[in-house]
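Researcher: For the annotation table, I need C-alpha cells for Transglutaminase family protein. Please keep the output clean. Sequence:
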Amino acid sequence: MQVAFRYEFDRPAGAGRQLFRILPAVIPGIQTLLRAEVSIEPDPDETAEFRDFYGTRVIELVMPPGLSELELVLDAEVERIGHDPGLDISAPLSHLPAEIAHYKTLDAASPHHFLAPTERIPPMPAVAAFARQATAKAATAREALEMLGLALHRHMTFDGKATDVNTPPAQAFEMRRGVCQDFAQIMVGALRSLGLPAAYVGGYLRTLPPPGQPRLVGADATHAWVRAWCGTETGWIDYDPTNACFALGDHIDIGFGRDYDEVAPVAGMLRLEGRQASSHSVDIEESPVQDPRALWSPLGPPGAGPELGTRPRPVMPPPAGEG
C-alpha cells in the first residue's frame, strides 16, 4: 500500500510542526505491519516518533521556513486477517453498566474512556432518540451495534460535498448526508447515548471495483468507523456504518480515540500567508499469501523508530504485543 500527502503554498511558508498518524497499527492475530518506509520532501529540520495514550504511532516533523511544497509518502506492506464475527455472546445492554463497573483499570482499552461526550461529539437528543428506536428489539450489545449501524446506513447518504472536517455530527445527521467521518461520529454518539462505550477508529479501506471493471489506482481512501465495547466476554467489536458491515479484512487499522481529533491523520501548525492546495491519495493492492500459516505467526524482530528524510527510510514494526 502507498499513502501520499501533498501540499503546495502560494507563498513560501514559515516554519511549522506537523503530526502524522498514518502508520498501520499492529494488532496481534489480526493485523501485522511487515514493512514501512516514509519519504519526506523537502528534508525536515527534525523528526521523531512517539505513541499517544491509545498506542497510535505518531510521526512528528519540524519543517524549515521557506516551504513552497511538502510531500510525505508512506510505502507499507500489511497482513490483515478478516475474522468472522462468530457467535454472539455479548452482554445484554441492561448488563453493560455492571460489567463496565467491574472493569477496574484505566488502560487504553478501558471502556470508561469512551462513554462521556466530547467537544466534537456532544450530546445529541435527536441522535439518541434515533438510537433508542433503532435498537428497541436488540437482545444483546452486538445486536444493538449492528441494528444501529444498519439503521444509520439507511438514514444517511454518502456525499463527499455535503460536509467538511469541522461539520458537527448533529448537523450531518439532520441533513442526512456526509462522509465516513460523519457516519462514524454520529454512530459513536448514538452508541454512547445507549450506555455502550464507543471509540472512533481511523484507518484505510481497500475498495473493490465493480465486476468487469479494472481497479483504479488511488481509488482507496482514508476511512473511519467505530469500535464498541460489547461486554466482558466479547470486548471490542469494529463496525463500519458507511458500508453497513463489520470491519474485517478490507479495513486497515491506524488507531482509535474518543473522536476525530485524537485520530486525525494530519495535525499541527504551519505559518502561512496566502492560499494552499492539498491532496492525499491511498492506493492498496492485494498480494497473494505464500504461506497461510504466516498470518498466525508472531510479529518479527523488533526495531527502532523511523529514520525519516528525503530518501525512503524503513519504519520497523514494534515488538510483539505493543500494537
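Researcher: And a one-line annotation?
Model: Residues 2-78+271-283 form a domain with the Immunoglobulin-like fold (CATH 2.60.40.2250).
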